[in-house]
């Protein structure tokens, strides 16, 4: 093993151990290893921070530096840094070692720093990884899947003890936990591999539509390829695959991606390529998640993972401690799985769940964001723990520092919305998109904060809600239209909660979030409650319409090759055209989907999403052209489609009216296209979707006075223009009153 040393030139290289960038001008050391992905051979430099590389060398099997002369480039290093390196080597030679202390993790875990030994551990072969994945995929029981992992991590592939790198195994078994972005969707992969194999791209796309599994399609064409045959024996290791994926994540140009993929293909068996494609897609198709993998290591490993997504830190703590979840510390700049809310279907349910008192907050119709601040450094993570797109948060930096001047290190939970400063109201979901945002000249990106997980070195997740809320209120100075506190109000009675909910509904808000006064912050747990209109009264308060099936799309995953997503529409009696309202993929069980394949087969024509093949009777936006179109919409089935609310979506042609979160609630065999909802009726339903909501008759004047005095109700009223309700009131008299009977919360 050879090493070299220099000063970081650009600040873009990533340390192989801690995965953090090595800042420009910082002293660094690289291991020189053979470049297995270069046809011309040569060495590849694996850069490390100084403290990281010497920490790695303290492990018993690691190759160690004996003196400065073993470092290429040492002559270019200044004397102070040479002395620093001498001190590290001296300490290393005194025999400092890190010893394992845990049971399974102790037996299983070999530090990832041993990766570069000349001989790969026998259990770190890609072929073994593929066999374990196949075994797990064929096991139906989730407990059985965990047992397979546990036995392998204890006994290894030869039943003589696991001989591999536990970190690299867990990392690749949980590809969705990595923040790598490959910028390769199914169609891009098909295009690239059609070039590599010299295959017909359209033919591959057709096969993808029928199969739904892009990895299987690519492998089938790999088997048929005449210019590049699959290897007969698997030679790749997990570390080689991980290095390949890391470099792939840095490539954004199609020609670079094609060249890089072509190199790995030349070293792959068919099964190797299939698993690599699935790693790129971040889905191994083994039907298990982090809980089933991590529970194989320790009963607390999954909960530790929810607190910190840093797999290396988790395994290190498990390896050097009692293995308790409590030793896994919250880390700045490492996302925490957000706490979630379960549907609340009645006022009584809310009070039975929140036994210590209820705090109600407005449920903002924006995008969940987790903010990490460490000094002047900021990171923003989405609900799925991916970095938030820059254009959505780029203006928040200065306002957060202004709003929280005492906050040096923070982890905050909130919602970003586009806020209309002119009318003092949040704008609807979806307006944060870079193009839509530009059309709202008087709007700014606003962050509504509703929780604090970490403040100036103190982890607050185990503190009760009221204390976490107090930290927010005592330290946040709102900046109007930019950084604001979500209004939180203590709910005194059931009638009080009804008032708040009805006020939210009448003002077109999504609903309320309810929190127990003494609840702690539990990552990934659905221990908050969300009260929305479509959850109440067994869903009878939701918006719905009877729509006609006018098209269908192939599904993906286990629904690949089947019509499982459907384009729903309505008839316009004026233009005599069929217009689109929504796409729906929820509501049918697997048996119904299978039955529909036969029932719809004779009334559907395949058009392969070709806009030129859309018939004249349909008006469909190019982006929504389906894989199949019905031959005659007047003979097509009618389904009742229910959703959270009617919404505006310019992509749909029914006056831009759509249904948010649609699902099929009933197949209306009793109705034909004539009885289905037409465009005129749909417009009335849309306009009246918030009409007819009134307080329960049992509420007396005291309750009405409480509504007037409620700070949360006051805030709810502020989010609409003052004349908005008057407009709705004046228009309601001219509309069909029988379409939307009065509904009440009980």
UniProtKB/TrEMBL annotation:
Catalytic reactions on record: ATP + (deoxyribonucleotide)n-3'-hydroxyl + 5'-phospho-(deoxyribonucleotide)m = (deoxyribonucleotide)n+m + AMP + diphosphate
Location in the cell: Nucleus
Keyword field: ATP-binding, Cell cycle, Cell division, DNA damage, DNA recombination, DNA repair, DNA replication, Ligase, Magnesium, Metal-binding, Nucleotide-binding, Nucleus, Zinc, Zinc-finger
InterPro entries assigned to the protein according to its UniProt record, in alphabetical order: ATP-dep_DNA_ligase, DNA_ligase_ATP-dep, DNA_ligase_ATP-dep_C, DNA_ligase_ATP-dep_cent, DNA_ligase_ATP-dep_CS, DNA_ligase_ATP-dep_N, DNA_ligase_N_sf, NA-bd_OB-fold
Primary location: nucleus
Enzyme class: ligase
Region (Disordered): 718-746
Residue ranges of the TM segments: none
Cofactor(s), names only, from the UniProt record: Mg(2+)
An MF annotation (GO) of this entry: DNA binding
PANTHER family: DNA LIGASE 1/3 FAMILY MEMBER, DNA LIGASE 3
Protein name: DNA ligase
Taxonomic source organism: Dinothrombium tinctorium
